[in-house]
Each structure stands twice: as structure tokens, then as C-alpha cells.
Design goal:
The chain is mostly helical. It is built from 2 helices and 2 strands, in the order E-E-H-H. A two-stranded antiparallel ribbon has the order 1-2. The chain is flat, with a radius of gyration of 23 Å.
């Protein structure tokens, strides 16, 4: 970790530094090689419902789908307690 002073700021205050982590070129190369070898295997073992850590899967899409599901539940008065419930039994 390297701290680089922000220009024009008081060097005695810790908040006036940018913290930068530098990896060596060898470690970056090793990371790329390892990722290339395990990416296909890892993608096959992940659930299709998992949004993070997968190409062309956005958590925003899943949040939008969940929001739509909840809205439809209110519209059609669905009472599926696995997803949304209140202590008084309402949705």
C-alpha cells in the first residue's frame, strides 16, 4: 500500500492522501493466467440464478425482477410467505 499526497492539501492529515495498492507485473500475469484457466469451470458450477461474478449478469436486472414480482404480488394479492410477509399475516 502506497500513500500519495493529494496536491494542495495539508500533508499532516491522513485524509489528504490517496491510498494505492500496486501489484507487481508477475502477480498480474499470474492472475490473468489463473483466471483464464478457471473461468470456464467456475461459470459451469455457479447457479444460473446468481447474478454476481458472471459475465452479462447484472444485479440490477435481478433487483428489477424482484421488484416486479413484489409489485405483482400486491396487485394480485398473492400471499406467498416465502418472499414477503408481515407479522400480522399481510403481504
Amino acid at each position: 500500500m502506497i500513500a500519495i499526497e493529494k496536491p494542495g492539501k495539508d500533508p499532516e492529515l491522513a485524509v489528504n492522501y490517496r491510498h494505492i495498492s500496486l501489484l507487481s507485473v508477475c502477480l498480474k500475469l499470474l492472475e490473468c493466467l489463473t483466471l483464464g484457466r478457471i473461468a470456464e469451470t467456475a461459470e459451469d458450477s455457479l447457479s444460473p440464478d446468481q447474478a454476481s461474478f458472471q459475465k452479462s449478469h447484472s444485479t440490477c436486472d435481478y433487483v428489477a425482477a424482484l421488484t416486479t414480482y413484489i409489485e405483482q404480488g400486491f396487485q394480485y394479492q398473492l400471499k406467498d410467505r416465502r418472499y414477503v410477509s408481515r407479522p400480522d399475516g399481510g403481504i
